[in-house]
Amino acid sequence: MSEFSYVVTRGWIEVVVGSMFSGKTEELIRRLRRAEFARLKIQVFKPIIDKRYNEMAVTSHDLTTIDSLPIEDAEQIFDHLHPDTKVVGIDEGQFFSSNLVQVVQDLAERGLRVIVAGLDTDWQGKPFEPMPTLMAIAENVTKQHAVCVVCGAPACRTQRTAGGDSQVAVGTHDAYEARCRTHFKPMIDAPTMDWKLKREMDLA
Ligand code: ADP
Ligand code: MG
Question: Which residues are catalytic?
Fold first, then answer.
């Protein structure tokens, strides 16, 4: 990624995808922090629906955090965009509707570096729009992997372990696990680990 870390003179789009727990948010935050080291003004947006850890910040499962503005619709980025901003970060891109694609294109046309993180597949292993379309139009795509909680192999899927069957259901360890292709089931499956018990053991 080093060539994408330098000062930007033209706009472009970077996409960071992978399963849940694959480090998308960590990677997004890492790139944004590097831009700040380069003294570039950054702005970070996330869908208002994602209130898992913090309403006003993008937070990884490891609790790394960066301030962000929650928005309902991708178009609202233009309402809040500061004229000095050079880098725009967007987390949980899959929770925005398809107009995110045009918004991201417009930002890049204006000369901004845009970094979008999000799930490439949903809990049934199906492409999760608008991320696949963004992957197609981006200058750079990074596919991250988590660790399969069953066997330890690189995990490319998000296993739902609780809840209903809607495509969007926000959760963390309580409802999702990272699994590899072999151990992923496109249906709700019993959790591999008792995360509540694990947390109690960690705290003990
Ligand atoms: P994402 O945004 O892709 O969901 P995050 O960046 O929020 O991922 O979190 C990544 C962190 O999640 C890892 O650094 C690790 O501490 C933690 N983690 C929890 N479960 C797993 C797993 N099964 N595989 C890899 N990392 C995991
Ligand atoms: Mg994330």
Answer: 92
The whole-model pTM stands at: 0.92
Ligand 1 and 123: CB distance under 6 A:
no
Both tokens of 80, joined, read: 């809040």
Tell me: the pLDDT tens digits for 77-132? 999 999 999 999 999 999 999 999 999 999 999 999 999 999 999 999 999 999 99
DSSP 144-156: --EE-TTT-SEE-
Determine, yes or no, domain membership for 113.
Answer: yes
Closest-approaching ligand to the CA atom of 173: 1
> Which neighbouring-strand residues pair with 160?
176
Q: Is position 96 within any domain?
A: yes
| Whether the Cβ atoms of residue 162 and residue 175 lie closer than 8 Å to each other | yes
Q: Is residue 60 situated within a structural domain?
A: yes
Q: Total domain count for the chain?
A: 1
Query: Is residue 22 in contact with ligand 1, taking CB distance under 6 Å?
Result: yes
Owning domain of residue 123: 12-144
Whether residue 181 is contained in a domain is answered as: no
Residue type, 160: R
Q: Check if 156 has its Cβ closer than 6 Å to any atom of ligand 1.
A: no
Gap from CA of 195 to ligand 1 centroid (Å): 14
